[in-house]
Structures are given as structure tokens and as C-alpha cells.
Design a protein that fits this description.
The chain is α+β, with helices and mostly antiparallel strands and about 400 residues long. It has eleven helices and 19 strands. It has three domains: about 5-240, no CATH class; about 250-335, 2-Layer Sandwich (Alpha-Beta Plaits), CATH 3.30.70; about 335-395, no CATH class. Helices cover about 35% and strands about 30% of the residues. It is elongated and about 95 Å long.
Amino acid sequence: MARIARIHLDPVGGIAGDMFAAAMADAFPEHVTGLLAELAKLGPGCELTDHSDGILRGRRFVVRDPAHGHDHVHLREIASRLRAAALHPEVLRHALGLFALLAQAEAEVHGVSPEEVAFHEVGAWDSIADFVAAAYFIAMIAADEWTAGPLPLGGGRVKTAHGVLPVPAPATAILMKGLEVVDDGVAGERVTPTGAAIVAYLRGVGAGATRNSCKLASTGHGFGTRRLPGVPNVLRCLAFVASPAFPAPLEEEIATLEFEIDDQTAEDLAVALDRIREADGVLDVAQLAAYGKKGRLATHVQVLARLDAVDAIADLCIAHTTTLGVRISRVWRRTAMRSQLETAGGVRVKVAQRPGGGITAKAEMDDVARLAGDRTQREELRERAEAEALKATRGYGPDRRD
């Protein structure tokens, strides 16, 4: 599968650690073997089973290991056990991060430091397995962005090692701060502490949103153990890959800087314009032959620039050329929808969609010259690169504007 640009979690019935693991396994079955091998480093008893509630089909994540009790376990003991298991470094990092986040919430509830927190249900083997499974998918999928739909509030009371507590449980409520919630009228513990920790943790994972067009690549359903009245107790996972869809045309106001040169050598002017062309905020630099006063042959220079860089670029023009002044004006520009793609052969190609819907491609000549030999070879490489880029974008178009 292509790089995952975004994974969206849809907590229809809610979210718990086992539901997250099951939903991800259902969406990414190719990772199940690796997941079970990683969990086997901690001990036996984890399996993924097919499940249907009569409406939807998906998976459940089941942990069977009664040898591990539900005694109080401190964070340092859990961390020590995870480190001793020789987990994949990224899996270990995310698993420790999930437990640390939950420990901070529990510490706030009980008024102690995270190191003093004694986990109860969460310290059990099944919850450790849930977090390690979640960490495995977070590490292996490496999505650019994770998002989640509104979390159901639920309601009522839940029995815990601390006694009967309101729903959402205190630590869960702390972890849900800043997350979007919805009250759908269905009571019960809809979001568990492990589920809330996973959603809260995922806010800080990934490179961030690009918000370019995406294609839905796969879906998965992870079921919980309870049955809810009128609502499937399922967490849905939607995985998206980046789509090379064309963005909207760019319309913006920019600046033009213009001046004439009639007393600077062509060699030195070429160096000066290269320096200007490389400056931040410069969009393009052009030069044209012109006739100045007294019939002198001169060079007309036009610089296109971002508005916020105009002052610095004007100073640069005066510093590197012999001009004594620069004319500055604001103009409105509209560009074709375009992007720069790189072919398998290492040639960058600019692809553009024209207003009539046609798509054109232009290979970067610097890349062609670097990779090819004589003129015939350069032409063949250029044609192959442009054809490859057009094939890659046919039906979609590029995904970003340079």
C-alpha cells in the first residue's frame, strides 16, 4: 500500500484499546503477523478473531492469559517489563508514551506524581497488550496524520478498583480534555482510559495535516465486548493515501520590481540576477533587451516577488546592479493548477492542468542534463520522464503547487 496520509477513527460505539487494535488489524491485515510476533515477546495469549454483530463484520482483539492478575502495578514496573521484552524501538517508544500519558492523568486524579501511580485494571496483562498493539500500529503504519470523530460521552456508573465511579471515569475525562465529544443518548462506558489515552496521544503523532485530496485506501472495524442498544459497538478505521488531485487555481497579489541597466557588463549582470533569483520571496526574474535614452542599448529587468519580501529584494537589486532606483507595483496573478513530481529515474517534472482540462508535463532540464549524455539521449530521457509523469497523474492530477 502507498504511504498513508491520514487515518481517521470513527468511534461509532466508542473506543477502547482492544477496539483500536482490532480496527487497525482489520484495515491493515498485512501487519497482523508482525503484530502477533511482537506481542509474543511479552507472553502468549493474544489473538485476532473475525467477528460480526449481524450488521457489520470486522475483528476483535482477544487476550487470554489468566496467569497475569490484576494486581497493582507501578509505571516503573510496566516500563521495566516492556524494555526487557526487546520490542521494536519505535513500538517501545510509543508504548511508553501511552503509559506515561495515562499515568499523568491518573496522577492528577489522585493528587500524586506519575511515578507513584499504581495502575489497577490498566496494569493487567490485557491492557498492556492493548497498548503494545496500539504502539505497533502507530509505529508500523507511520501515518502522516491521525484524526478522530467526536467521542461518545456515555453515562451512568462503572465499577473500578477504586469503587463505583461516574462515566466517563475521572482519568478518562482528563484525557478527553480538548477532544470533541458527542452525547448520543446511549449510556455506559463508551470510552475507556486506554481508548482515551490512544486518541489523546495520537494528536502529537505524525508530520501533520497536508489537507490535500486523498483517496480512501482501506477500512476496518474493531468490535468491543459489550452490546449497545441501537448502536454497533464498533470503532471504524478509515485509512487514506495521498491522491494526486489538482488543487484549486492559485490567485494572489504579488509585486513586480522593474529597472533598466545600460552601464553593467553582461557577465556581471548575469551574476547579479542569479543572486537576486536565489533570494527568499523571489518568484521569477526576467531580462529583455531595451533601448534607453540617447538610443543606448539597455537591459530591462523584471522581478516577480512576494509582497512581504519586496523591501529586501529592492535593496538586493540596488546592491548587486548599477541601477539607482527600482519601480515597484502590485499586480494580481492567477496560475494554472500544477505540481512538481519526481520520476523513478530521478527527473523532476512539472505537471499542469490547463483550464480546458488538458494536462501538460515539462521535465526539469537540469535533471535531464545531469543524467543523460548527448542531445539524443537527453531528448529520449525527457520524453520518458514526461510520459511517466503524465501516466502517474492521469485521472487525478498533481497534489501540490510549487
